[in-house]
Amino acid sequence: MLVHGAWHSSAQWAHTQRALAELGASSVAVDLPGHGLAAPLPSGYLDGDQPRLDTEPSALAGLSLNECAETILSTLRAVRRHRNVVLVAHSAGGAPASLAAELAPELVDRMVYLSAFCPAGRPRFIDYLDAPEQTDTARGRALSVGDAAALGAIRINPLSRDPEYVEELRLTHYTDTPAEEFDRWRLALSPDLPIAIPSTPVALTRQRWGRIPRTFIRCAADLASTPAMQDLMIAEADSAVPDNPFTVRSMPGGHSPFAARPTELATVLAR
């Protein structure tokens, strides 16, 4: 079961799902609330001048992390009949996926964090995003549009006509995706990440979340979630649950291997 990260959707997993199918693994990808084809857009977002993009409050401002976790839980319940259910979360998707696993650990046989937020050491994603291990080398801070607290969302502009902004978005999230292919990926992104996802504390326990076997897929050249921050999350999770440490796999490249190397990603997941 595949959970996307910020501004993404189930669609970005398609290449990986095809590769998984070739390896004999069935899969399902979910759209978190406020993402995918049903994602609400700021008024004028599709217009050339994008009026009020930096001031109009997000329709997702009131969305809770529990609602996002419930979307994951409903699908986990539906697939529980399978012999081995692996819950995979990418990036910010680690917050609702971790909460879902804490609430119903019996539905998950293994968790996989793909350069994803793991709240075992620090309960909020933003606590890691503000850590020196992240801020010293990460890109992407210039991508935010408007005041996140006022908007109720972390907003980006995938439709920007500014070539420098578009290139910063590519370098941050699709580092090793060729520029000529990147437009196809960025135009599928939605602009708003509900602020609840990075800012709501997730309380994990050793007795519930901590009993699930887990793997961290470390992206070695990630500029959105730096390798140093990934290592910090791994180390703090292992310290919190020392009797059930992460199995760590490393992949070359940046933050979005489902775009740059889906077959390799599927092979790692199928193991």
UniProtKB/TrEMBL annotation:
InterPro entries per UniProt: AB_hydrolase_1, AB_hydrolase_fold, Sec-Metab_Biosynth_Hydrolase
GO molecular function: hydrolase activity
Hydrolase listed as a keyword: yes
Chain ranges of the AB hydrolase-1 domain: 2-266
Keywords in alphabetical order: Hydrolase
Superkingdom classification of source: Bacteria
Keyword Hydrolase listed: yes
Stored PANTHER family: AB HYDROLASE-1 DOMAIN-CONTAINING PROTEIN-RELATED, ESTERASE_LIPASE_THIOESTERASE DOMAIN-CONTAINING PROTEIN
Protein name: Alpha/beta hydrolase family protein
